[in-house]
Amino acid sequence: MLRVAVLVSGRGSNLQALIDAVAAKELAVDIVVVGSNKVAAEGLRRAEAAGIATFALDPAGYADRAGYDREFFERLGEYAPDLVVLAGFMRVIDPAALAPWIGRVINIHPSLLPKYAGLKTHARALAAGDARHGASVHYVTAELDGGPVIAQVDLAIEPGDTPDSLATRLLPLEHRLLRQCVAWIADGKVALAGERVHVDGVARDVPPLVV
């Protein structure tokens, strides 16, 4: 069974979606640890309630990002995860710390990448007058939100939408998208080979759309 680690910085709603899917036997993985850069992150409490091991390291105690990330991923490695899921983990990972993990780390991002890497994606989509918005799951590389996309989900932007209303409507679709992508990886359907996502062993240039 695929050993999964989940990294969070906040409330952990995507983490909870994975926990619930495992409990319902809809997702055949073992969530072995939840880690955070925030000691008070609500996601850690969700993990503890589900009986999942947790750890947190505060970046304030480190001289630089490289040193923090090196120790964070050394600690993560003690749990021997096969897959690391960034589910609202609000840090840019140092390339040297990330390098040994390439192909084993995915992230969920609230935009239709390559649009709107970084923060405030809902507000940026609205400001641009986009007709549709969505979320992406991608493999993590040294480029911020720039790794190969596995899959996306989208929804129509409605008249009167605000960043908050858009985020609220998108969230359940994010949950479904993340569960699906983790299931594909667990089943061996999706993998990263070089710089391209392979689906059933075949390189795919256009991300599949989960609807």
UniProtKB/TrEMBL annotation:
GO terms for biological process: 'de novo' IMP biosynthetic process. Residues 3-180 form the Formyl transferase N-terminal domain. It catalyses: N(1)-(5-phospho-beta-D-ribosyl)glycinamide + (6R)-10-formyltetrahydrofolate = N(2)-formyl-N(1)-(5-phospho-beta-D-ribosyl)glycinamide + (6S)-5,6,7,8-tetrahydrofolate + H(+). The active site is at residue 109. Its EC number is 2.1.2.2. The lineage of its organism: Bacteria, Pseudomonadati, Pseudomonadota, Gammaproteobacteria, Lysobacterales. It comes from Tahibacter soli. This is Phosphoribosylglycinamide formyltransferase. The record marks 145 as: Raises pKa of active site His. The keyword Transferase applies.
